[in-house]
Amino acid sequence: MANTLYPESYYAASANAVPPRPALQDDVETDVCVIGAGYTGLSSALFLLENGFRVTVLEAAKVGFGASGRNGGQIVNSYSRDIDVIERSVGPKQAQLLGHMAFEGGRIIRERVAKYNIQCDLKDGGVFAAITAKQMGHLESQKRLWERFGHTQLELLDQRRIREVVACDQYVGGMLDMSGGHIHPLNLALGEAAAIESLGGTIYEQSPAVRIERGANPVVHTPQGKVRAKFIIVAGNAYLGNLVPELAAKSMPCGTQVITTEPLGDDLAKALLPQDYCVEDCNYLLDYYRLTGDKRLIFGGGVVYGARDPANIEAIIRPKMLKAFPQLKDVKIDYAWTGNFLLTLSRLPQVGRLGDNIYYSQGCSGHGVTYTHLAGKVLAEALRGQAERFDAFADLPHYPFPGGQLLRTPFAALGAWYYGLRDKFGI
């Protein structure tokens, strides 16, 4: 039996108390069966319930067990590939739709937190930090690009200004996005799950979907029960396994590593990040960090292709943290963990429909916190017959990894090695 308890992360240790949820043990009927209680599934379920659907959510482990409860906790706008890249591949009309949606996920998170009073340490403000002049140039063009799509809460930071927001001398400048920010990601997921139940939705934990009976009236089977539904939403992402084989070929689970320090105390925390913004650098293989509600530093980075759990996470990430903040050399690390996200070859999300009644969204490629909240809304719209925004995502071109599942890991690792060299030499 796979481990279905939360990994030993800072988030699990500081999670808000929630009631235990039962495993499915009989046959139930519903309008929509959602597979996966991460952000994509939770967001879909919540929008559907608000629109009068009956919803049942099946979760193989616990709410927020996967990437939703393990990520860096940063609200970062847009997609893993920016709107200009999308525009070149799909043309202006589709890019226009996707461009305007690129900033919606963060708004949805804030609406959810306010409407359902979710306690998740929400803070406004995210910084993109440039290490080279070339990266700074990219941020300048990114600001112009985002402003073209109506996104105006942006400020370029010169070398002096970035020192005011982060005590790290690696950076030549940066960009502040006040509609970015950070959250306790597991508590956000748990709060959304409670909101689902408050509207009459049902969530079954420890209830993996083991088989989908496709057809006019699809049925999802779990080890001890089944759900008959009019529609199914597949939202397993990097934890879906081979339940839907046609989705597995076009994506690859990847691991990212995160460490959390002991509490730093108010003075040191304020010295590192005076305005409490979160930060990510502009490298292809980027580092990201922020303060928690109790003044620890969460620092993440590194990618393990094929989603193996590395033996010593602290040994991988601590040197990156000390390069940014040598002043933390004597600080103890209290937690270290890994979590998987799903990478696609284009690094754009995959959204679509199988047959008439099975919908899916997957492959956020490391940009999941905001995108998944948008995806839930877009999937819910499609089930209500409003498919324009769904189609804009569904029409994005996607390709299987060269060599299939056997070669996808070495292929992606080779690409990462190449980009790592580019980061290192600033090219």
TrEMBL record:
In terms of InterPro entries, this protein maps to:
FAD-dep_OxRdtase (IPR006076), FAD/NAD-bd_sf (IPR036188)
Q: Which Pfam families match?
A: DAO
What GO MF annotations does this protein's record show? oxidoreductase activity
Q: Which residues form the FAD dependent oxidoreductase domain?
A: 31-381
Keyword terms of this UniProt record? Oxidoreductase
> Under the cellular component aspect of Gene Ontology, which terms does the record hold?
cytoplasm
Q: Which domain of life is it from?
A: Bacteria
**Keyword Manganese part of the UniProt annotation:** no
- The protein's name is Gamma-glutamylputrescine oxidoreductase
UniProt organism field: Pseudomonas fluorescens
